Please model this.
Amino acid sequence: MNFRTTRGRLATAAVSAAIAGALAVSASPASASSSNGYVSGGGSFYDDFADEGTLSTSSHTDSNATCFWQIILYAEGVKESNGTKYDHADIDGKFGSNTKYATKQLQKAWGLTQDGIVGKKTFGSADDKWNSSTGAGELEYRSTGSTSATKYKIRYHGSRYYFEIYRTSGGNYRIYHNNQWQYASYKNNSSCS
Model:
């Protein structure tokens, strides 16, 4: 009887491993970068931002992707160039000198190179795994929605406050600003201006 139980467990483990492997392949990460036009991801959302495009004073300077980054700066409560906290009025989707300064402050707090450019390491630091037992990390899964535009509701936890974002069934991120949901696009600035 012990032999059967062990053999049954091994068979169950083998089937489970095969199913998990199939799910891993079907949930492989989407190709994410500025080339597809949106901040996007696939599979686990804990690593969606580490392969994004660059945001700076010379790259995607006027975009919803920059707006998304500015919302992160606001949520983190970093200081802007005039010495006050980065505030809601600073969220305009334009990556200027003030956003560059605030980005450097956040890079300093996160132990990164302080160049004011939101590259793979900086953007990638914004999607650290949320640990519910320690209450640490930036992203927390909240729910699965009923439409393709609201497939995954995710909460970003900053040092100052948190905000909600959605990842669509196609992997594109949506942000909420100025009383509307917009895609975090690299190509336009419709929600912040």
Observations:
- The two ends are 71 Å apart (CA to CA).
- The mean pLDDT is 81.
- The CA atoms of residues 78 and 85 lie 6 Å apart.
